[in-house]
Amino acid sequence: MRALITGITGFVGGHLVRHLVECGDVVIGLSRSGIWPAETKAEMERLARLEKIDLADADDSEALAELIDRKTPEAIYHLAAQSNPHASMDDPRGSWAVNLGGTINLLEAVRESSVRPRILVVSSGVVYGNPPVDRIPVKEDCPERPLNPYSASKIGADMAAVQAFLGYGLAAIVARPFNHAGPGQSPRYVLPALAKQAAEVASGKQAELNTGNLDIVRDFTDVRDIVRGYRMLIEKGTPGEIYNLGRGTGTRLADALEALRAISGHALPQKVDPAKLRGVDLPLLVADVSKVLADTGWKAEIPIETTMRDLYHEFRAAIAGE
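RE: above sequence
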């Protein structure tokens, strides 16, 4: 299968490339920067079935249509996004422009091209906001209640994808992954932030962990499971439909920290840092994943302990190499 990935040089993009190449796909990359993170650049250059990364203006649907005609992808994975909910509070216009505007431009480019690929528009489980307890685990028909411009713009992109199917017949599918983590993820996000601090405490670089609210519960899935789900949705998902992706069970952040204590063999003393406490924080968010299981057979397989172990050892290796 010839697969085009937008936002290929991001955290998830790198993992998706590895999985698609393992499946025998030819991967076409699209990125505004065209620059791999240093730690993945050499590996990506060695992958035999990875074509050159193209630079394209996401605001120019004609240029994108020309690229799609030239590359003839059978599948498009639309990962490109402003992906940080908290950063979106500082730049709502930019988040809307990238997340909704970029999705519309991609869908229009496919419409203007002579190619009819299957398209996976990647959204997020945070679009459901803070659902009532009786709606958890959250099904796809739960009302969306966005708490920030990131989630609001993702809802807009989801509806653009559904409309492109209903109105134009494009084979667009929406994936709503819940929290996911894994090697290569920035410590701006909670699990790698905990793992990085644990590695620093274990190596003597800092005395204790500075944490936020550890009582919140999230549906954490390993990114390597998530990208496997993306390909299964491209293969077996129903166009015009929305699918949750997640483990289907919640993990307290305090329990993730306990896993790090066991993995590191250190006590990992901690204190709450008021700067890490957020005014708007979801106490509980867990996905109902029965729909994706029924339609594709996908389910999460990698234990959260494996994810935490890989994150921890990645940061320990980075510290050792400094």
